[in-house]
What does this fold into?
Amino acid sequence: MQPIPYSKQEITEDDIQAVKEVLQSDFLTQGPKVAEFEKKFAQYVGARYAVAVSNGTAALHLSVKALQGEKKTKIITTPITFSASANCIRYCDCTVDFADISPDTLLIDTEKIYRLLKSAPKGTYSGIIPVDFAGYPVNMEVIRNIADEFGLWIVEDACHAPGAWFTDSKGVRQQCGNGNYANLTVFSFHPVKHIATGEGGMITTNDETLYKKLLLLRTHGITKDPEMMHENHGGWYMEMQELGYNYRMSDIQAALGISQLNKADKRLMRRIEIAHRYNEAFKNSSIKTIIPQDYLQHAYHLYVIQVEKRKEFYDYLRANNIYSQVHYIPVHLMPYYKKLGWKKGDLPVAEKYYEQCLSLPMYPSLTDEQQQYVIEKIKLFYH
It folds into this structure.
């Protein structure tokens, strides 16, 4: 059996043709494809606005910057995520506070968020960054109710979850990124994500003021919009109105993103099929899986299991050309955050989860034959 990675991109001939057309056009960046991708992605998630950026980390940074301004407060996020979900808080000179995860969903524990807020003086916290870990959507209605009670903003990190949804208290399906509960939602287009643009990210919102702020921050804080400028010297004139960044996406990336978006629903259904086969294979075993009530609400960026003898199992899989991965080392145990005062024992649920977690191969081009091979090898180890 050829090596089977935990994830990989799938680039087809139509993707290549889309990029080729841009390379042969007049614009490689700041052209029409970025705006087209933004419009189509906003429609896909059901939001009014979308802002394409250079990567998911840039999306997080701009989101916190746009909402937080110059305030230096605490912001809450989860320890089980890629470090960028916390680092964006530090980029804005704010303090990261971690709320432990729920053992039932592996998502940030809303009761622990509430306890943190209730025990702190008013004004201590200003925002929450929940993460749709592995593609499992956070119930943003619950988070919104907490945020409103304490006057906080929300940035939903949906980098794992394009196409995922949850059902609100009125029975309405709420798509990740539709802007009905989060102030801003961020997505990533890294190669292992649902939509691959090489590097790239997107921010969605229903707030026009925030949308315009993000556009300004994305491009050095510079505007050429006559309605926004303080002066106008002529057609060449532009104004730098804020200290912004160069977080733009190129037309090359956007063209690839549009082509990939066209296949997003089909590929999401394939991920769900793969997850269903894993669930059926492991349902009577010692392997623990997090299975939502409705398969279709989960985007299955990752398929995570929890097992005993994780290191031995990981090495066994590699010896059999199966390249699993760990998602994630708890962020608060990284050396940088330890220097800020975090230590082992602070977030026991996340730490216990880390000791047992492993992500199995999960990507749309994984064949039934490959998946069956993975399942058989796992059963041999845990027979």
Summary: The radius of gyration is 21 Å. The CA atoms of residues 81 and 328 lie 6 Å apart. The domain at 265-381 is CATH 3.90.1150.10 (Aspartate Aminotransferase, domain 1). The first helix runs from residue 13 to 23.
